[in-house]
Amino acid sequence: MTLSSKDYLYKILTIAVLVFGIVSIIIVQFWTPTLFGADGYLHIRMAEFIKAHGLKYDFHWARYSTFARNFADKDLLYHILLIPFVKFSSNIFFGAKLSAIFFSAVFLIFFFIILRRYSIRPLAPLFLLALLISDRFFLLFCWPRQMILVIALTIAGIHFLIEEKYWPVFIITFTYCLTHVSGPYMLLYAILTELTRFLNSRRFNFKSLWVVGLGIVIAYLVHPNFPHNILVFYLNSIMVPIYSLKWGLELGAEFFPISTRDYLLGYPFLILAIVFILLIAVFLRPKATLRTQVFLLHSSVFFIFSFLSQRYIAHGYPLILLSLASYARDYSQENGGQAEILNLKPLLYPGLVSLCILGLLFGISTYKNLRQSALVHRAYDSHYEAVGEFFKQNIPKKELIFHANWSDSQYFIGLDPDNDYFVTFDPIYMVSYDRQLYNLYRDVSFGRTKDPYNILKDTFKVNYGYAGKNFFGGLIEQVRRDSRFKILGEDSLGVVFRLE
User: Is the terminal CB of the chain with fewer CB neighbours within 10 Å at N or C?
Assistant: First the structure.
């Protein structure tokens, strides 16, 4: 059997897009010698903790959090998967960069395999390219975090729920729950899928819910930190989203919405995908298959919540692309699979040219934004690496170190694990530990107390501290004016001080 010229073109285009994506991930990753963001420093260090201490160990590094008493590794399987990058790298942070490249490349290949199943075959590489032309989503490829795996597990879970393949659903649910604290959300995906099936064919498959529920229960029971992992799920996956809807707790930037400009430029093909879905529905009117309806429902939920928290956009973006791909395939199949000759020829070439021009413009914008992001991470993360090294050289081991920003500890635990800090990963863990203590901690950090020295010395029992200049100028001024503090080190971004 010989391949036609169209088959050759398709294969060449597919390989070109995959190679372009993987090479781009490698190049962007090494635009900065540091890691992208704070969390990677802690994740790779926690992989080393498992390598050194086993699956069950005391997490004393977050002294004023529930982790100090009831630690559960909320990203256990991800940290286990990072161990080879710790073991075979002389520098664990270089290993973290390699891990980000590896998992991102795996995700690209996985997403393309899914696209081939749900898309018109020649269009699959174009949808893959649309995924890459998004600086906001591309940053997920750069961060040594578990989120790219979580999105892959979400897509795979929804796919097998549609197919009613129970063993894969069970395995994915089990794996998801051990990979990230949001694993029980698989039950919501199962409910949404079965509601769609019921509306489509008046059949609700309860077995899917039982299989997902069984996967969740077994994963939680075999977790080495059971039953503390139940508390971590409650705090991180229930309380944090609730707090993100109202004021009352400092959260990471990903839990808050972004501006309309950043939304449109960061995910340029998201709105275009929605527009195309509406155009297909209004003018072409194909009957949407179950798979299309399921992906549309899930992506709609993520899209709605994206206006409240930007993290939902990243989860929903691949699902919206899959929704459009599947809907276009529905139209093609209704017309004998020959989409290119169905009275669309007058629009086909102008449409492709327009998409190419838009892709080029958005690609240039993505390149510039990623360049800027790499420069920002290089500046900030180099600063934190210097502070971590300063801690190692100038602060005795086993000290408890104050850090004005709760997220500073992600850097410092990774960079200087010989000392302890206040709270890490999320302030909800300190709120759960002691709400009044957390409120006092924030008052000191923002310079809202009259005598921070006595509070730090007597209440928090610290001798050393760090404060960044971006948000904590009030505290830094108090430190400068008070002779009981001594500034040990300072640069343009932060101050390290000692309590005399």
Answer: N
Q: ω before 227 within 30° of 0 (cis)? A: yes
Q: Write the burial class of residue 19 (CB in 10 Å: 0-12 exposed, 13-18 middle, 19+ buried).
A: exposed
Cα torsion through 468, 31, 103, 387, rounded to 10: -30
Cβ-Cβ contacts under 8 Å for 448 (sequence gap 6 or more)? 442, 474
Which H, E and C letters describe 439-492, residue by residue? HHHHHHHCCCCCCHHHHHHHHCCCCEEEEECCCCHHHHHHHHHCCCEEEEEECC
Instruction: At 35, list the tokens.
Output: 């890691």
d(CA 22, CA 322) in angstroms, rounded, equals: 20
User: How confident is residue 372, by pLDDT bands cut at 50, 70 and 90?
Assistant: very high
Query: How sure is the predictor about 282, in pLDDT bands with cuts at 50, 70 and 90?
Result: confident
Whether the CB-CB separation of 32 and 374 falls below 8 Å is answered with yes
For residues 391 and 412, give the distance between their C-alpha atoms in angstroms, rounded to a whole number: 9
**What angle, rounded to 10 degrees, do the helices at 135-142 and 311-334 form?**
110
Strands, sheet with 494-499, edge to edge from the N-terminal-most edge strand: 401-403, 464-468, 494-499, 485-490
Indicate whether this model's pTM tops 0.85.
Answer: yes
* Total residue length of the chain: 500
Distance, in Å, from the CA atom of 289 to the CA atom of 405, rounded to the nearest integer, reads: 49
Could you tell me the end-to-end alpha-carbon distance of the chain, in angstroms, rounded to an integer? Answer: 82
Distance CA(390)–CA(327), nearest Å, equals: 56
The pLDDT assigned to 5 comes to 65
Find where tokens 């051990």 sit.
178
> What DSSP string runs through 383-447?
HHHHHHHHHHHHS-TT-BEEESSTTHHHHHHHH-TTSBBS--S-THHHHHH-HHHHHHHHHHHTT
Q: Residue 17: exposed, middle, or buried by beta-carbon count in 10 A (0-12, 13-18, 19+)?
A: buried
**φ, ψ for residue 317 (rounded to 5)?**
-60, -50
* DSSP conformational letter for 335: T
Residue 35 is which amino acid? L
Q: Give the helix/strand (H/E) hosting 114.
A: helix 92-118
